[in-house]
Specification:
Strand order of the largest sheet: 1-4
Strand content: 5-15%
Mean pLDDT: 87
Order of helices and strands: HHHEEEEHH
Largest sheet: 2 strands, antiparallel
Shape: globular
Helix content: 55-70%
Structural class: mainly alpha
Low-confidence stretches: none
């Protein structure tokens, strides 16, 4: 869920409408596709990131020459998304950094609140 919250400030550098759209897409993709992944620990954040970036992840993958069919997570972006101000990987790094910052802030708040009481 923190990825969804971190999407808004990262995408806000472009414009408000784009930030709201990306944040909504991160949430809806997380809810819709998060359970498709075999791993319960990585499916939900992977789906949120795919929605935030407007990309599709997963699908058939080769492991040691053996193709394993996996479900797709997210939806393929448009040509307009491809000509964006940052590449998907640059946006992913920024979203990951903001996610970490939010998580550390929450942890620090909880720890400081425990000391007060």
């Amino acid at each position: 869920m923190l990825i969804v919250f971190a999407t808004f400030p990262v995408m806000l550098f472009k414009d408000t409408v784009r930030a709201l759209t990306a944040t909504r897409s991160a949430f809806t993709t997380m809810v819709r596709d998060g359970k498709k992944h075999l791993s319960p620990n990585s499916g939900i954040p992977e789906a949120a990131m795919a929605g935030a970036l407007g990309i599709r992840m997963g699908g058939p993958s080769a492991y040691g020459g053996v193709v394993v069919e996996k479900p797709y997570i997210g939806e393929a972006g448009t040509k307009e998304d491809a000509a964006d101000y940052l590449t998907a990987s640059e946006r992913a790094v920024l979203i990951a950094k903001f996610t970490a910052l939010i998580g550390i802030s929450i942890a620090a708040f909880i720890l400081s609140a425990r000391r007060v009481s």
